[in-house]
Design a protein that fits this description.
This protein has 329 residues and is α+β, with helices and mostly antiparallel strands. It has two domains: 146 residues, Immunoglobulin-like, CATH 2.60.40; 135 residues, Immunoglobulin-like. The chain is built from three helices and 23 strands. Strand 10 and strand 11 form a beta hairpin. The chain is rod-shaped, with a radius of gyration of 35 Å. The N terminus is likely disordered. Bound molecules: calcium ion (3 copies). The site of one calcium ion (CA) has 7 residues, from loops.
Length: 329
């Protein structure tokens, strides 16, 4: 009974499948006869961001077409923010790159104007070329970023034709292109008095009272902060050490400002930016403790070796009465 049932079910499934395929075939045949669908024109990427001096290729893409044979386009952009890069040095003027949808067999217009901020393009396929079906790239525009800002990239004219010389309706989605300033950097080396590992100091870049970026020194004391062009104050801190501060650092686009070497001084375990008797007392009260002791707190272990000894005490002795910020040549 079971062995008879399975072929019956399989047969039913096959009949259903054929019926569905039949309906689908009829359905897919009808749009070519009735060009009522709406194509979509857009840019890819739609709203990119690049830095001054960089270039980006923006594709004009069409989707949901069943028979695209000719296309005419006009776009605008802000010529103060971006410029179109010439795609064909062999032709006079500035060209964009033809795409493949429709096949650009005859390009009637291909012209960008970097003074007016316009792109004009018109092309048709030539019989017997087959029309573009589905989706594809009409053309590619390469923009170069000139200055910080945001520019719309707007379709101001568009006309799509099918191979029967009927207009194809289209919805459009214009885009924007944002140009950011190129960052610069602050970089330098620091040493932590008494230590062989100079890592772990916190370096913070401030704009007024606002911390904008920070990093931590590496084991050799090196640090680098990537920052947008502006004036910054840099602070350098580490628990138990006097802090450093350097105002008026001007970061310029694409440049690394190398700072003079800095030496952070130890001897401030209570972190009040002053080395005095309180620090010495704090170290003295913990003298000879190790990090194996249950009451270990590590505050006085500025020379970071798991024991409070004469090296930690000398930190405060040698820097007695010094204050933050420490000198930064
Ligand atoms: Ca050219
Ligand atoms: Ca102190
Ligand atoms: Ca120590």
């Amino acid at each position: 009974m079971v062995s008879l049932l399975i072929p019956a079910v399989a047969l039913l499934a096959l009949v259903l499948l054929l019926a569905t395929a039949r309906v689908y075939a009829l359905g897919s045949a009808s749009p070519a006869l009735a060009p009522s669908e709406t194509a979509e024109l857009a840019l890819e990427p739609g709203s990119p961001a690049i830095m001054v001096g960089e270039t980006i290729a923006v594709s004009v893409v069409v989707t949901a077409v069943t028979d695209l044979y000719g296309v005419e386009l006009a776009l605008t952009f802000d010529p103060a923010v971006v410029a179109v890069v010439d795609a064909n040095s062999g032709a006079s003027g500035i060209q964009i790159t033809p795409g493949s949808c429709p096949p650009p067999n005859f390009v009637a217009i291909n012209s960008a104007d970097n003074s007016a901020g316009t792109v004009n393009y018109a092309t048709t396929a030539l019989a017997p070329a087959v029309p573009c079906v589905g989706s594809g790239v009409i053309a590619v525009i390469t923009f170069q970023a000139l200055a910080e800002g945001t520019t719309p990239i707007s379709f101001t004219n568009w006309l799509l034709s099918d191979s029967n010389v009927q207009t194809i309706a289209a919805t459009i989605t214009s885009g924007t292109l944002t140009v950011q300033p190129r960052p610069g950097a602050l970089a330098g080396h620091l040493s932590l008095q008494g230590r062989s590992d100079h890592g772990g100091a916190l370096i913070t870049a401030w704009d007024g009272g606002t911390p904008l970026a920070n990093t931590v020194s590496g084991t050799t004391g090196q640090y680098s902060l990537t920052l947008l062009p502006a004036a910054y104050t840099l602070t350098v801190e580490l628990a138990g050490y006097l802090d450093a501060l350097r105002p008026g650092l001007l970061v310029t686009a694409g440049e690394t400002l190398d700072l003079p070497a800095l030496s952070l001084l130890c001897g401030d375990p209570n972190d009040d930016d002053l080395v005095n008797i309180q620090d010495l007392s704090m170290i003295g009260a913990r003298y000879k403790r190790t990090c194996a002791d249950p009451d270990w707190d590590g505050l006085a272990d500025m020379i970071d070796d798991c024991v409070i000894n004469i090296l930690d005490l000398t930190c405060a002795g040698a820097n007695y009465h010094r204050t933050s910020p420490v000198p930064w040549p």
